[in-house]
Amino acid sequence: MATNEAYYIPSKATWPIVGSIGLSTLLVGFANFLNGASVGSTMMILGAGVMITMFFGWFGTVIKESEGGIYNHQVDISFRMGMMWFIFSEVMFFSAFFGALYYARAHSIPWLGGEYGHIENKNLLWQAFEAVWPTNGPGQVGGHFEVMGAWGVPAINTLILLTSGGTVTWAHWGLLANNRDQLIKGLIATVVLGFSFVVLQGFEYHEAYTEMGLTLGSGIYGSTFFMLTGFHGLHVTIGAIILTVVMVRSMRGHFSVEHHFAFEAAAWYWHFVDVVWLGLFIFVYWL
Question: 253: which of 129, 149, 152, 196 lies 20 to 30 Å off by Cα?
């Protein structure tokens, strides 16, 4: 396919069907695992193995095509639009979670406390209910818990993510200036900071479960806390893995001043993760 043609048509690929088979095997195995079937764990491992193989194979093919100069301007635009829509879908994903937190704090709890006049006797719900946040519901669901403070590990992680946003931007400046040494050093710093965030969050979760009594079963506070921070932690992990791949590619001489969308896509995603964390720090930990 000539690179000057207006519309790019990719060559025949088998990786999509391989990915479909792997994902189906993984999900069917997970369903069997939840229902106690012995074959479930085996299918999950097999499905995960097929998915990992698909990722390496498919992404490797795309990288080879990109480095080989096969893609034209139309392909570059389609990649950018795809990444934009993907990040938009992630924004909607977290918006739903933040919306659940807002509804619980600003509407459902005051309503249950009789603030809106719908419930004259709040003891009809349960004895001695207090319409305050944080709460773990009727009868202290999950037992007594401590609230996760903002100025320990969460504040350190905030500093880590904000710093990582600066290092990935510094790496981008190095790429635009054709300074590969700066590019690689900036990416190494960003990857180290990203995985440091994940490790510290692991310590935070361990403390929550073992010392603070704060678990997923701690009512609405526990469920929203782990739902929001856990999914964000997953996104940080994925982002750090993506940046690791970009770092390795940079060390191998990939990317140029004119063509480096894979780096830009990783940087967009990382900045999105930073912004989401600021919202989490303010509304989950601080307020």
Answer: 196
Task: Choose the weakest-confidence range: 11-25, 47-61, 116-130, 246-260.
Answer: 116-130
Look at the block and give the residue holding tokens 């896509």. 265
- 217 and 94: one domain? yes
171, 255: one domain: yes
CATH of the domain at 20: 1.10.287
| Structural domain ending residue among the three candidates 46, 70, 94 | 70
Alpha helices in 127-283 (DSSP H): 153-176, 180-210, 219-251, 261-280
Which domain range does residue 86 map to? 72-286
Whether the predicted pLDDT of 152 surpasses 80: yes
Cβ burial of 283 (10 Å; 0-12, 13-18, 19+) is middle
Q: Is the pLDDT of residue 253 over 80?
A: yes
Look up residue 179 and give its two tokens: 């300074």
Long-range contacts of 40-49 (CB under 8 A, 24+ apart): 47/22, 47/23, 48/22, 49/22
Count of structural domains within the chain: 2
- Length of the chain equals 287
Kindly report whether the global pTM for this prediction surpasses the value 0.70: yes
Q: Please, what's the largest Cα pairwise distance for the chain?
A: 75
